[in-house]
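To: structure subgroup
Subject: Chain for Friday's discussion

All,

I'm putting the inputs and outputs inline so they're searchable in the archive.
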Amino acid sequence: MMPRQIKQAHGRTGALGTRMALFFTVALLVAGCTATGIDTNPVVRKFTWFSYLNGDDVRAACEPGAPDRYRFVYNGVFVRHVRTYDIVPEADGRTFTLTTRVIGPTDVSRIVIRRPLDIFAPGRGTIVETKLTRDDILTLREALAAGGFFESPPRRLRLTSEDFFWLGTACVDGQIAFNAFRWPSARFDQARFPSVLLAWDPTGIPISPPRDVSLLEIFGTSDPDIRRRHSTFNLTVTEDGLVGR
């Protein structure tokens, strides 16, 4: 049964100011901060994205006795399709909130350059919150264990923005668990938690399935230098998390 939906938003999370200078000031201020969740501003999100992927805030709060917390990210070619799932405990200690976000390409045709706020309107994605029970969390933990999530991550695994992969960081019983699953691989196929998350996903937006894609399909051109003109990254998986840029 689908967990109960409690709130939905489609890219309307409030203004960030009235002048472009303020936007960049805010972006620079958060550049060195730990992500406490995926930001709804595409410019700020670029600065905090790696911290978010690495689960830095989840790690910082994880200690003996800390409540369970989970974060999963699906990268379906970064500039085209990203899904995030954050699960945090409620104050009652019996329920959890799952925040699902689906972020697609910024629709540049909708941006009015002369309006500073307008440049931030697209690209914020679809955000939906749902309630989960302890039984739901037990189902998730069983899926994580069955799919090898609690095993050591593959060292030196390379992840690029043009790849299809799942990343997960979790605080479970006061211990950090981190893993990565890149397509194509047997590990990717054997992961069980994605099917659980997608069954709970209330956005109605289909996942972009893993497949071979060309620069032309991703960026609309075959120019090999195109990556330098877009939001791209290269990461390496270590036992302690992600490194790269």
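Points worth raising on Friday:
The chain has one domain: 5-18+60-244.
Residues 134-146 form the longest helix (13 residues).

D.
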